[in-house]
């Protein structure tokens, strides 16, 4: 798979730009702040409907404009697919596939398979568990787009259940006549939301969607693990072995049970933690509290690994995702944003070798000399609001 | 900002659901340049909807008299009752032509984030209707999204002990969606293929 052309209107710093890309290597060069990452961010958005840098859409629309448009021509198995997205913050995005409107933007998921490594990925190793859960869930959705719905459903149920627990918690805390009403009003949800009679209903749905998500993640981690170990070894050349493990917030029997047994385990855990949850006003068990542990040698990477090791680990997680998707049978697009400047020359050469066979590779850098010669290919010069071929 | 009346109209239109500031402005200027008779008709329709439309005392659908058209129709079966969230869902289901029973409009779905619990919906009224004994099947046609599913589960838990068959519309409806946006064919099929819960 490769992106043949990308067009942006009012996306980030670009008023209007079009870039023709090549299969194989593409190197984007330009000084800091000129808009290189903005380009690859746009491709990431087409693939995942989210930015790898910001959680909301507002910063993606060019300052002063109301909507942004992304147009991306993707070639896969000799056929071309045109994906068009309109980003309008505060409203649902609109999408078209080959010029016909999609029922919902989510329908474009799966059209572009892409793995993006960016400096922000250091957070995969150093950041909160939420970063690693997002890494897993994003990959899950890339492999099987139906998980976009599973994930959205699960997150919505947790939100609703937390609102219920919080409202009843606040009502109890300020119990007694007028104080209660005043407090509930000030905090948003009115009294009706705090009726714990519906808690059992939310438990049922949390366990159902949670089991679905959990099963997906467990399967994913089992498949991904060997690729992480291999990728880290390739990047770091034998300096300690990397291994990953999924650590659920709910105790699971060994070997890992099937979906319906997972649902049972989640239900049981919810029943057990119910008093604590009512006490604290939030949902304490479920996939939204799970962790992906990263180990280097015998020590956890988080809190122990050096800067360079953490960096290599983050890169290995992305390369492993790339390998796994490839093993699934579709060659994804690989993007390395600002990677080579961080590596010593040995690691640069090894990485270049590792990714040289990609069906399409996009590399950004501020200094052209940082990119190893092995990665020759199309060159582009990025200057303010413009992208031009430079070879 | 415009002066006086035109800005008042823009502000009022902007308060409507789904109308942003730009659309509000466009509609306002459209009204300004429209034929006076058309504008009078629109104003009358707006006034009449508040004056004349009431909620059916049986099913809480919108009605122009004590009872809505469905509840007044003696040919509709008393044995099958279909629970929906909003009056607009009644319209969507009527369009399919599949359903010959009666409705019960809840007035929303359980939604703790918005402060809506079972007491804020017409659930007590539903249970009272079921208590009369004429209903044999209850069809849960709440929206196929998180809140609609939770409401359906809640109702199933309440109603099953009463010995009434409880069914849910078949999947195939767009998940995470609104019933009203499902096309007639999809919604019709969902009706035919409803399953016990
Ligand atoms: N919504 C927006 N509207 C206008 N300009 C924006 C918007 N969002 C970001 N920018 C501008 O885009 C520029 C950043 O672009 P980008 O992150 O792509 O740089 P880069 O070429 O990757 O730089 P570096 O080499 O430092 O990574 C900044 O100058 C920023 O002000
Ligand atoms: Mg950058
Ligand atoms: Zn009626």
From TrEMBL, chain A:
Q: What positions does the domain RecF/RecN/SMC N-terminal occupy? A: 2-369
Binding residues annotated for ATP, in chain numbering: 30-37
Q: Does the keyword Nucleotide-binding apply?
A: yes
Principal subcellular localisation of the protein:
cytoplasm
InterPro entries membership: DNA-binding_RecF, DNA-binding_RecF_CS, P-loop_NTPase, RecF/RecN/SMC_N, RecF_2
Which cell locations does it reside in?
Answer: Cytoplasm
Keywords, A to Z, come to: ATP-binding, Cytoplasm, DNA damage, DNA repair, DNA replication, DNA-binding, Nucleotide-binding, SOS response
Q: What highest taxon heads this organism's lineage?
A: Bacteria
Note the HAMAP family from the entry. Answer: RecF
Report the family membership: Belongs to the RecF family.
According to its UniProt entry, what is the function of this protein? The RecF protein is involved in DNA metabolism; it is required for DNA replication and normal SOS inducibility. RecF binds preferentially to single-stranded, linear DNA. It also seems to bind ATP.
The name of this protein is DNA replication and repair protein RecF
Taxonomic source organism: Plantactinospora mayteni
| Protein's gene | recF
UniProtKB/TrEMBL annotation, chain B:
In this protein, which residues make up the domain named Toprim?
Answer: 79-174
Q: Which SMART domains match?
A: TOPRIM (SM00493)
* Superkingdom of origin: Bacteria
Which Pfam families does the annotation name? RecR_C, RecR_HhH, RecR_ZnF, Toprim_4
* InterPro entries named among the record's database cross-references: DNA_Rcmb_RecR, Rcmb_RecR, Rcmb_RecR_Znf, TOPRIM_dom, TOPRIM_RecR
- Start-end of C4-type zinc fingers: 56-71
Q: Which UniProt keywords apply?
A: DNA damage, DNA recombination, DNA repair, Metal-binding, Zinc, Zinc-finger
The family note in this entry says: Belongs to the RecR family.
Q: Which HAMAP family match?
A: RecR (MF_00017)
Function (record text):
May play a role in DNA repair. It seems to be involved in an RecBC-independent recombinational process of DNA repair. It may act with RecF and RecO.
State the name under which the record lists this protein. Recombination protein RecR
Q: Which organism is it from?
A: Plantactinospora mayteni
């Amino acid at each position: 798979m490769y992106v043949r052309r990308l067009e942006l209107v009012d996306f980030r710093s670009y008023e209007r730009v079009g870039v023709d890309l090549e299969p194989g290597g593409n190197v984007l060069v330009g000084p800091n702040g000129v808009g290189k990452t903005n380009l690859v961010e746009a491709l990431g958005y087409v693939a995942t409907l989210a930015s790898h840098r910001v959680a909301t859409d507002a910063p993606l629309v060019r300052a002063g404009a109301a909507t942004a448009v992304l147009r991306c021509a993707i070639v896969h198995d000799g056929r071309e697919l045109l994906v068009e997205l309109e980003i309008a913050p505060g409203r649902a995005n609109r999408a078209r596939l080959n010029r016909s409107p999609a029922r919902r933007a989510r329908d474009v998921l799966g059209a572009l398979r892409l793995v993006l490594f960016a400096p922000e990925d250091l957070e995969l190793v150093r950041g909160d568990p939420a970063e690693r859960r997002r890494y897993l869930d994003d990959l899950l959705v890339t492999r099987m787009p139906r998980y976009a719905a599973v994930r959205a459903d699960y997150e919505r149920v947790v939100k609703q259940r937390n609102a219920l627990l919080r409202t009843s918690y606040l009502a109890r805390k300020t119990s007694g006549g007028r104080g209660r009403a005043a407090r509930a009003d000030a905090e948003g949800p009115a009294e009706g939301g705090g009726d714990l009679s519906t808690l059992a209903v939310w438990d049922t749905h949390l366990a159902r969607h949670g089991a679905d998500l959990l099963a997906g993640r467990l399967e994913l981690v089992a498949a991904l693990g060997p690729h992480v170990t291999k990728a880290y070894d390739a990047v770091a050349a034998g300096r300690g072995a990397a291994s990953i493990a999924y650590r659920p917030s709910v105790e699971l029997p060994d070997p890992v049970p099937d979906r319906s047994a997972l649902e049972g385990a989640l239900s049981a855990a919810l029943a057990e933690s119910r008093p604590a949850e009512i006490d604290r006003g939030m949902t304490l068990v479920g996939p939204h509290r799970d962790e992906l542990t990263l180990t280097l040698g015998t020590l956890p990477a988080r809190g122990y690994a050096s800067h360079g090791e953490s960096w290599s680990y983050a890169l290995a997680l992305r390369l492993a995702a790339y390998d796994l998707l490839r093993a699934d049978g579709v060659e994804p697009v690989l993007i390395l944003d600002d990677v080579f400047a961080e590596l010593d020359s040995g690691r640069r050469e090894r990485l270049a070798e590792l990714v040289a066979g990609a069906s399409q590779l996009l590399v950004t850098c501020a200094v052209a000399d940082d990119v190893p010669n092995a990665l020759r290919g199309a060159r582009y010069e990025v200057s303010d609001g413009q992208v031009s071929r430079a070879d | 900002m415009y002066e006086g009346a035109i800005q008042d109209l823009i502000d009022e239109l902007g308060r409507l659901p789904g109308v942003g500031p730009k659309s509000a402005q466009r509609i306002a200027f459209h009204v300004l340049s429209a034929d006076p008779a058309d504008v009078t008709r629109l104003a009358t329709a707006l006034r009449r909807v508040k004056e004349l439309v009431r909620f059916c005392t049986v099913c809480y659908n919108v009605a122009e008299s004590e009872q809505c058209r469905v509840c007044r129709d003696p040919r509709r079966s008393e044995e099958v009752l279909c629970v929906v969230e909003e009056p607009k869902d009644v319209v969507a289901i009527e369009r399919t032509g599949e359903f010959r029973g009666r409705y019960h409009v809840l007035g929303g779905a359980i939604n703790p984030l918005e402060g809506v619990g079972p007491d804020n919906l017409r659930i007590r009224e539903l249970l009272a209707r079921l208590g009369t004994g004429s209903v044999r099947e209850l069809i849960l046609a709440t929206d196929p999204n998180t809140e609609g599913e939770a409401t359906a589960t809640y109702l199933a838990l309440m109603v099953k002990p009463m010995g009434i068959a409880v069914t849910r519309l078949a999947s195939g409806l767009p998940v995470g969606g609104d019933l009203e946006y499902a096309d007639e064919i999809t919604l019709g099929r969902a009706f035919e293929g409803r399953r016990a819960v």
